[in-house]
Amino acid sequence: MISESAEHPAPAPAVAAVVIADDATKLDACLAAVERQVYAPALTFVVGGDDEVRRIAGEHEAVWRRDIRTLAADLDPTITFVWFLRDGARPRVDALGALITDGMRVDASVAGSKILDAARPEVLVSVGYATDVFDAPYSGLQDGEVDQEQYDVVRDVSSVAGISMLVRRDLFSGLRGVDPIMAPTAAAIDFCQRARLRGGRIVVIPSSEVLYEAPDRAPDWRERAGEIRAMVKVYSPVTLLWAIPLAFVVGLVESVVTPFLGRWPIFGFLAAWGWNLARLPSALRSRFEARRGRSVGDEELFRYQVGGSARLRGLYDDVLEAIRTRFPEGILAGFGDALEASQERVRRPSFLVGAGAALFAVVGTRMVWGDRLPVSGFSLPAPDSALDALNAYAGGWNPAGLGSPEVLHPSVGATAIVQLVAFGRSGLAVALLTLGAFLAGVFGTARMLRRWGIGSVGGYLAGVVLMGGPATRALADAGNWAPLIGLAAVPWAISAALAPWPAQWVDRIVRVATVILPTGVVALFAPQALLLPAAAAAVWAVAGHGDHRVAPLLLTLGGALGSLPLLMPWILYVDLADYLGHGAAAFWVPSWPVIGAAAVALMGALVAGDRATASVAGWGAVIVGIGAVVARSGEIGSGREVETAGLMAVALGLAVIAGSAVEVGFRRVLLGGGRLALGLLGVLAGVALVASTVAVATPGRAGLPEDRLTGTFDFAVGAETEAAARVLAFGSEESLPGTSRDLEGLGYRVFLPPVPQTWDAYLNEPRLGDEALHDLLLEFLDGDVRRAGEALSEFGIGWVAFLEPSPLSELFEAQLDMVGLRSFDLPVFRNEVPAAPVVGDDGSHWLRTGTGYSAPEGSVVGRVRVAENADYRWGPGEWVQDEWANLIVEPRSEVTFSGHGPRRAAAIGSAGWLIVIVGATLLGRWRRRR
Amino acid sequence: MKRLTVLAVAGLIIAGASLLPEPGPRPEPLAGLVLDRPGLGSPLDAGIWYCPWAQANATRDSILAVVSMDAATASLTLPVAIPGEDPDEATLQTLGPGAAEIALAEIAVRGDSPGFFEFDAGPAAASVTVIGEEVMAADACVASGPDVWYFAGGSTMAGETLTLRLFNPFPETAKVSVGGVSEIGTEALGELRSVSINPRSWRDVTFEELLRQRQDLVITVTTDEGLIVPAMAMTNAEGEAWWPGAGISQRWEFPVVRTEGLEEAALVVSNPGVTTANVTVDVLTPTGPRPAAFTLAIEADSPGRVSFAAITDEVIGARVIADVPVTATVVATGSGGLAITPGVPAPEKVWLLPGLQSIGLQEGTLWLLNGGEEVTSITITAIGPDGVVAENVMVEAGTQRRVTALPDAIGYLVTSSQPFSAAWSVTGPGGTAFASGSAVSDE
């Protein structure tokens, strides 16, 4: 503790001043201020910075050190205190003296100064911090709050500002100094917390005044990352158990709400968590050191913390401020005024419309993020393990049907990456993607239309039509979840391509990356729509207005080209003709009200709109037309994927038409009677298109069909220690999950219960096992099979279910080893013969682990039969082909597919390319902020 | 101008989209396919033969015989009516054509043991002959059956017992409703509505207490859920008989109606329809056919009995022709025992007669009836363990022919270029039994 004896005054303690230098231009003034101190430091160090910093340090006879970690060894034992300053600090002449005097008086371990704005010395910057439980600082100061000595009392605080901080040398050494990889404020909080964990007292000494020249330069995400790291280092495991997930949720909420204020913290949020994941080992090491000598528990840390979240509290203040700014006379008065003729006032509803659009996204997807993704068609839950999914995507085993080494759909890999960020929770990943897509789609469309001067109201409403309009509803109603994610990225790709071409080459590279990134998202989740942004840009180049119409086309083409590596290895191996032709023939039939509303909205925008709105509406109309042609091209062999791409185009075009039509109502254009009437009709038709999205918002399933399969096959799932047998499901192509095979017009497929997952969606080209099963079913149709259970058990099939009534079910009723279960809504038959995909020669049923299998406890086998399509890469152990299946002789406790090396390499390359693109995009944001 | 151009282009594209032809409708699933349920549901597939009546205990045994036209393996499964208990199993091999038999006592001696044969090739057929000191009962097993099974020929007069066996060889519980009509009208059998039969088990229903003193009792079994194979057994003072259920038809042929020792023979015809059935019975005598020897009108839901005692000549065969579908069964009794078997609804060109043999004191007889209008040549192939012996016989139109079975035979294959009917009988110290032949369909 900092203390003194009243009877025998100790000699004045020696102080070493340590200036953390990032910027040489500020250092000189800082060192000069240190030199002017009445209580002169015995020694001055400068830490960090470049050669210029080192030179300036030399001029002031300060010792320069590259790294703060080496500083402790340099401090002479006679030094009692270390005074940390940042290079922007300008301490008043008595600042250090006050810290020493008052700090010693109150036995403080760490004492901080009152920080004032150097530009306006009357404005307070910091008088110490409270923190919330997530270690986010809360100053308690209003923005621009004037110092009226209202805080001038020595107070215990959670943390002091790292701008001027006096620390006892032995404490500094014991705590191994400040964490060098943390941002300044987070580092100060972290240091103070670690000091308090050892019983130290943290006080702010207002009589010690320090002017500060500039705000901390560390980006917000670095501070956020530091806060998470600080939590990990000091809290007990019990606290971490609830605090870490809660911190994630708080960040998520902040990321969802903050875009309304014009900020986009989602990337920082993700970066902060990613940064911590990468540095988890070092955080755990630091945690070990920090908690090893602790003398107090979490209760002491909680003492000076504020309730709730400091960030959400700040966000709440910002929202209120934004509302005050927009509607100075109150929300209702502002809304009323907005309806007045003044164009300036007409723009005011944008905030409310934006909020409503966001509400649409939240409400329209509430079942997905509140409960689960409805399981129907291609809307399937992600695999339980993100790592397993990534492993399967990167040259691993494709578990769909009876399995194959074919490459999985890229959406599986992309979803898995998000799942990794979402703590491996597949449901959370799907919820994030769905909600994020709806928000991104809405605001991306507004952003895109803003490039052409379409206002926010029209833009937001267009975004709502994009994500919930008639075409999107048709798209989603067919059980297409992944294309919804891709659709949301389309306007971002176009918007990025439409932005002015920058002058500097670095910015040009960044611009290309910002086009590739959303195009890549389109490609990953809907590869069939990869060229949609380019096609839209091409239409604009022909039908649009203004200069520089070719550049966006070239950029979007470049974006598509640059997205191709993201599709590896899928793009290298996919049979495009089969991919684009599979499923029901493409033939979208829009309803007449939709056609009528779109036509009237288009006419209104074309006739009554100004040049900009008319051009944009015309652009949308041509896109709708092209999309409709594509979505109805089944006669030439196009399948469901092509129809999906066509519907995505129609959705984009309809959104643009609706936005343009609504915008006409906000433009001050003098029109005659006929044009005025048509314009008004167009506005109404545009609003009608928006209103049609209620069909998506009401069920809250993001337009996806009703969940038909969740829980349906729960009966087929045994205890955790029991291996589940496959389900052979019959039904129409539409009723079956994912793709299916054809048995004389009747669809069928196998999957593992309870429900197929995204990696089960696309069945492989028929291989030996698939052909054997097909032959068995044909034999079955002939009525030649009487013990179907025995035959099906060879395929690991333990259940047969009919999702729709079929006469085929009668054949199963007549089987000698299939038991009809009559208590279900659909015909279900249980195989009396024990079945599992992998069976040991001792009869043991192996458990599914990822895409491999593991032996049940106590099972010792000499060979194991793997009822997956034969492939020599199954092992470990000697592999023998057993007709269409695999036999592993002398297996270990697990059998897995060893993987396909080149595909794995391609996937890793793809991930590397993604990192480059994301990095370049972040670089662009950083440069813009600067 | 540009707006108009864009509008025109967009309109043209959209018009083009609207003109795109709709792809043709997808074919209905399984369209054009005739789905034959294996086993009971299929009139074509005869891969599984269900034998609901077989017994082996201290006083009697059952001979389970099979005949196959191709080399085949017949797997016999005898379920045990205790849940979780493994069934008893046996396997018989046949050449092509071939026959085999096994005594039930070699597999299981636990009284009633209904079971089924699974053939891996065919056509094939199976039969059960129950033999004891005072019993001789035989009939063919069934591979297919109607939705409603009819058992005509039963009675519950004094000294008679009538037992219906409901055998469920399948792994799921079956439910059936049992009904009955007799000379006094429709019987009230409410307690036999929706009777459950456990998987791989059976249930016996006796009628001598439920429906006393009925002379012509016709029992119907309707499947509500699942599948069952019923059989009926009857005893009287003279002997014992078991017979499988039958469907309904407008034509029935009876190659065998009476044999030595069975002095009283009659046809029991039942009309399950809603209108009166006008029935004509042609009989065959050694002196020639006597068309329309009997004509009778049977009211709806009523049985009718035609006793051959009224014919002075010996009746050796009969044919029933009705204007609506009826069911018909022959019942013969006398000092030689009791024999009951349903008629043949349709003549066929190929018949299998497993179990037809003469061994020891038992004498088997093959009965052939040519109900057509032309003389026909019939090839009779006796199938024994060491090979086959074939002979051709000519059967005049509208006549019947009986052939004594060879001692070495286990079964018979009978073929002709013209449709005909076949049945068999066996006489021994325990009594006499009639058994239907198993037709092999042309399809």
Task: Please tell me about this protein's structure.
Chain A has 930 residues and is an alpha+beta fold. Chain A is 49% helix and 13% strand. In chain A, strands 1, 2, 3, 4, 5, 6, 7, 10, 11 and 12 form a 10-stranded mixed β-sheet that branches. In chain A, strands 14-15-13-16-18-17 form a 6-stranded mixed β-sheet. Chain A has a 4-stranded antiparallel β-sheet with strand order 19-22-25-24, with no helix packed on it. In chain A, a hairpin with a 6-residue loop joins β6 (110-117) and β7. In chain A, α6 runs parallel beside α7 (220-234), α15 (349-364) runs antiparallel to α19 and α28 crosses α30 (640-664). Helix content of chain B is 4%, strand content 55%. In chain B, strands 27, 28, 29, 30, 31, 32, 33 and 34 form an 8-stranded antiparallel β-sheet that branches. Chain B is globular. The chains are: A alpha+beta (930), B mainly beta (443). At the A-B interface, α28, α29, α35 and β17 of A face α1 of B.
Secondary structure blueprint with pairings:
The complex is a heterodimer of chains A (930) and B (443).
Chain A (H helix, E strand, L loop, with lengths): L13 E7 L3 H12 L7 E5 L3 H9 L3 E3 L5 H4 L4 E8 L2 E3 L3 H11 L4 E8 L6 E3 L3 E2 L5 E2 L16 E2 L7 E5 H6 L9 H14 L4 E11 L7 H15 L2 H21 L8 H13 L1 H13 L5 H5 L7 H17 L4 H8 L4 H4 L2 H16 L1 H5 L15 H8 L16 H12 L4 H25 L5 H13 L1 H8 L4 H17 L6 H21 L6 H12 L6 H14 L6 H4 L2 H6 L10 H17 L2 H21 L8 H25 L8 H19 L2 H4 L28 E6 L9 E3 L2 E6 L16 H14 L6 H6 L3 E6 L5 H6 L4 E4 L6 E4 L6 E3 L6 E3 L2 E3 L8 E4 L7 E2 L2 E5 L2 E5 L4 E4 L3 H29 L1
Parallel strand pairs in A: 1-2, 1-4, 2-3, 6-12, 13-16
Antiparallel strand pairs in A: 4-11, 5-12, 6-7, 6-11, 8-9, 10-12, 13-15, 14-15, 16-18, 17-18, 19-22, 20-21, 21-26, 22-25, 23-26, 24-25
Chain B lengths: L1 H18 L28 E4 L3 E2 L3 E9 L3 E7 L9 E7 L3 E6 L7 E2 L2 E5 L4 E9 L2 E6 L7 E7 L6 E8 L5 E9 L2 E2 L8 E3 L3 E6 L10 E9 L3 E7 L4 E5 L4 E6 L9 E8 L5 E9 L2 E11 L3 E6 L9 E18 L2 E6 L5 E7 L8 E8 L5 E9 L2 E9 L3 E6 L6 E18 L2 E6 L1 E3 L3
Antiparallel strand pairs in B: 1-8, 2-7, 3-6, 3-9, 4-5, 4-8, 9-10, 11-17, 12-16, 12-18, 13-14, 13-15, 13-17, 18-19, 20-25, 21-24, 21-25, 22-23, 22-25, 25-26, 27-32, 27-34, 28-31, 28-32, 29-30, 29-32, 32-33
